[in-house]
Each structure stands twice: as C-alpha cells, then as structure tokens.
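Try this one yourself first.
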C-alpha cells in the first residue's frame, strides 16, 4: 500500500482528510503541526515561531519525522500532514526512506483559495473538552449557540496562532517555500490535485478516487 503526502495551503483541510483516510484504510496519521505543538511545550523558541507563523528549522522537522517513521512497522502505511514544506525537506525525506520496505508514496495537492482558507482559519473554534470543531464564519459549521459546544456545552476557544497576521505569514511561507514542491513532485510523476474549495466529503471522495487507482 502506498503512503500519502498532502500538500496544501493553510486551512485546506489536510488534517481532516488525513483522519478520514486513516479511518478508511488504517493509515497512521503523522501531523507535523501536532508534533511541533508537542515539542513546543518543552521549547519556547519553537512556540514563538509557531505563534508568529514563521518556518521551523528543517533539522528540527526532519528529526521529528524520522523518529515517527522509524517507529512504524513495515506494514504500517502513513499519511504525512504538513510535511515536507520545502524542496530541501522533500529531498532529505526521499533519502531518509531509502531502504524501507514501504517507501513508495503518492502526493495529493489540495488546492484551496486564499479567501476560503482565511475564513476557515480566522473563524475556527474548537472545544477543549471533547475536541469538537466549529467555524464562526461558515454558516454550515457554526455552533447552535454562540461560543458553546453543541456536544458538551463547554465554552469554545480559538488557537493562539489563529490570527490574521499569523495566517498571512503562514500563507506567504506556503507560497514562497511549499508551492515549489508541486513542480518537484510533478516531475517525479507522483502528484495529483483535488479541489479543496469543496466541502470535506466531496474532497474525500475525490481523494478516494485517486487512491483506489494507486493502492
């Protein structure tokens, strides 16, 4: 079974799609964002960079990813969410997985407009108790009662880094550093594109259509 790499602007739904694939195929979800937020609890420099939306050093990212990949058995397929973020990381990753029995992958580009990505991030809310997520700016995903979780009625919160300035910094970083990866993977003939402006179920259906021809 081939592994999956997602490339997308901020708030394209990489995490949502990764979790859906894991449920369907039994993949292991490797989220760079989750790994960095965990690491930031012990490293204030990483936390500051996350808050500002600036890129984390490649060496730190690669160390975290290497540890996760090496912990998997050869039978585990995985979804990489948020990695690689630049061509240097992509080349280092290709070297890292040489010799692994399960080293083949497909790359899925979730193409979403800046306007929609901005709405998804700036309106994003989540429940700290049950993990439910909502969006104050998107009618189809608003809580029934303002700032209250529909499930457990806890107060909803925003992530500290869900701000206009941080979004702009993250989007600029994506354009300058991550978008060039599309050509890198296109040349390697492993790149597929889906329309990320659709709702998550339609995006998921398009991804499944791609994967069913690959797995």
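Now uncover the answer:
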């Amino acid at each position: 079974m081939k592994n999956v790499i997602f490339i997308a602007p901020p708030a394209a739904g990489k995490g949502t799609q990764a979790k859906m694939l894991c449920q369907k195929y039994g993949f292991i979800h490797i989220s760079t964002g989750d790994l960095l937020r965990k690491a930031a609890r012990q490293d204030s420099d990483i936390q500051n960079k996350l808050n500002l939306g600036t890129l984390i050093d490649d060496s730190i990212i690669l160390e975290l990813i290497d540890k996760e990949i090496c912990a998997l058995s050869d039978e585990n397929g995985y979804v990489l969410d948020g990695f690689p973020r630049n061509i240097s990381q992509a080349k280092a990753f290709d070297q890292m997985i040489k010799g692994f029995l399960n080293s083949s992958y497909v790359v899925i580009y979730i193409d979403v407009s800046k306007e929609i990505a901005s709405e998804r991030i700036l309106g994003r809310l989540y429940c700290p108790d049950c993990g439910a997520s909502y969006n104050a700016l998107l009618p189809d995903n608003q809580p029934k009662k303002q700032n209250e979780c529909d499930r457990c009625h806890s107060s909803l919160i925003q992530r500290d880094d869900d701000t206009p300035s941080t979004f702009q910094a993250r989007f600029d970083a994506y354009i300058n550093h991550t978008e060039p990866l599309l050509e890198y993977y296109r040349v390697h003939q492993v790149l597929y594109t889906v329309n990320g402006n659709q709702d998550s179920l339609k995006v998921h259906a398009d991804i499944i259509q791609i994967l069913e021809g690959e797995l």
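Discussion: The mean pLDDT is 90. The longest strand covers residues 105-111.
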